[in-house]
Amino acid sequence: METITFPESVRGSIGRYAFYNCESLTSITIPDGVTVIGEYTFYDCENLASITIPKSVTSIGERAFAFCNKLTTVIIPNSVVNIGSAVFDCYNASIYCEAESLPEGWEVDWNPNNCPVVWNAGTNLRLFNVKVTANNSEYGNVRGGGAVVKGFTTKITASTAKGYHFTSWSDGNTDNPRTLTVTSDTVITALFEAHTVVVDAAVPATYTETGLTEGSHCSVCGKVIVEQKIIPMLDNTAITETAANAVNIYAYGNKIVVENATEEIRVYNAMGALVGCVGKDAPGRISTGTTTITINTSGVYIVKVGGVAKRVMVD
Ligand SMILES: [Zn+2]
Prior knowledge:
single chain; mainly beta; Leucine-rich repeat, LRR (right-handed beta-alpha superhelix); four-stranded parallel beta sheet; 1 helix; about 40% strand; rod-shaped; binds zinc ion
């Protein structure tokens, strides 16, 4: 049993306990002509989702809808003058009443869990069904909808699966989440599509600018798929030290000056004969890393330090 529609000929009351604990009952249309919904009629119908009480009903017995915890929307017309105790002893119902305020004939604990009540909700209230779907259930999922009172709203939400974005609803609206005012039975579909992946090229770091790793994003929605990470600037400390430590050879008057030698210094004359040799820890060497060699005969000399050689003119 899922949906019950009574024959039009039903009149009078629906019997006590008629659908007591009827787990498979999800929806029911109570025919116009029924005047009494007896006590415990739908007690513990745990899958019953919505109910419209026809304008012929004047009385609803004790606990008639107690423990109907899937019941989300209830319409109660002005005709209902008596409601018993704990009729809506449930937790998820929103109750829309044509009455402007609590009628005298309703027990004070008719709604013991204080489910939200809209008084003076209007006349000729009716329920519409809002069915929310996704164009592909693997692309994302949807929430909201169900039974909604005519002229009221429902919040519908589209949530994407990884790799997809939400494009729009099937009527072209792009709000998400969206507050939908309901004026008819409605089927609405969330349209999802796969991201359009664009590669964000890597940018190499330099000595003056940071770089970026390769990443990617969706060119339609902008979603970052692979984040670009910052590559630090190249470290130029080592280069500076190398430059600072580079062997520098020059002549100054009758002196040959060698800076930053870390190996033995050899001085040759123009004929290629070795005329001087200074060890790296030689006494003439000063602490800043500069070695000064005095030459007594002017002329061209070749100075070699390790793999470095330079021709200098000494006065
Ligand atoms: Zn996208």
